[in-house]
Structure formats: C-alpha cells, structure tokens
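Final report, closing paragraph on structural work. Over the funding period we assembled a curated collection of sequence-structure pairs, and we close with a single example.
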Amino acid sequence: MAQLRCSDVTLGYEGTAVMEHLSFSVSAGDYLYIVGENGSGKSTLMKAILGLKSPMAGKIETGDGLKPDEIGYLPQQTAVQRDFPASVLEIVRSGCLNRSGLRPFYTRQEKQLELSGGQQQRVLLARALGATQKMLVLDEPVTGLDPKAQTELYELIAKLNREDGITILMVSHDMEAAVKYASHVLHISKTPLFFGTKADYLRSRIGQ
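Its predicted structure, as stored:
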C-alpha cells in the first residue's frame, strides 16, 4: 500500500486551476524528485501534500501507517529562517511538538534529536526529523548553499533515505542531483508530463 497517493488531483487558486488530473503514488523508501518549470504548481502541490491547501478536485491520501501529521517539511531557506531568534536546540525540539500533543515536556529521546554543526539547513532538517521518521518533504533545500554544503546536505538526505528508510519527496531544479539520487521522478506542468522510475524518465522524450 502506498504511503501517499494523489488521485486525479486538480489544484489552483480562486477557482483557477494551475494543475489538473495529477495522479501518482509514493511507497515507503522512495526518493521522488518533483521537477517542472517555475509556475508549474510544485509549491502548490507541496502545500496540498502537507494539508495546507485542499484540492479543487480529486484526493490526496496517506496510508501504510503514515498519518498526515507525520510528514516532516523543510522549506526553502529564507532570510527569516537565517535570522531565527532561537538556539539550535530550541529549533530542533520545536519539531517534536506536532506529535507530542498536549504533553508539556520532551522525552529523553526527543532531547537527543539535535544534530551537531552550524549549517542552518542541517538544523532545520533536524527539526523536520523531529516531526517524522517516515516521510520528508523538501522544497529546494540546497538553494543559496555553496557547492560543498550542497553536496553534504544531499548526502545526508540520501543517507536518511538509504539507511533509515525515510521516504523523500524533493522539489528541485537540480537535474544532476536527481539523476544521482532519485528513485522516481514526477515532472509536472499544468498537466502531468511524466511519473515513473528514474530510469524510465531518462529514456523518455522529456527526460532527454
């Protein structure tokens, strides 16, 4: 059974569709790259997957033991995030609040979720992991990072997928990274252009 399934989904704003008839599924352990031109609806799709926006039509459902509040999210880095007035430990622990309910304290295990290092996207990734050990949704996570930091973050995400079995959904323009890391590719426009394995994508007309 799929962890995430989109069935004939239409997304848009104020009655105007930006994406129509989108259907795909994600299984546990998949590494899905979501690609498309600017304005193709990638960010809108992210919001819908996270439950922040309702589809105009169709269904987005979770399954295989994944609950909607067990999806971790790492947004694009912004100036607000870079200047976030909190300690590393406070940021990481805040990711646990989504699944702690009304419990007014952190468990010993949650207090140990902090990752070392000053690289801010790693801190925010640690925060996202506080919310889940099942699925991460990442929106252009390496934007603004230097090449060395990009590689380190990509490798860390790949390790979480490979060794911890965390399902990855990543919006990215970095096709070189997609070729290296992805198991599946979703290429979207107003209508879906491709969904399938990376190997099939590279053989397809659009993938070439």
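The first helix runs from residue 42 to 49. The chain is about 35% helix and 25% strand. We thank the funder for supporting this effort.
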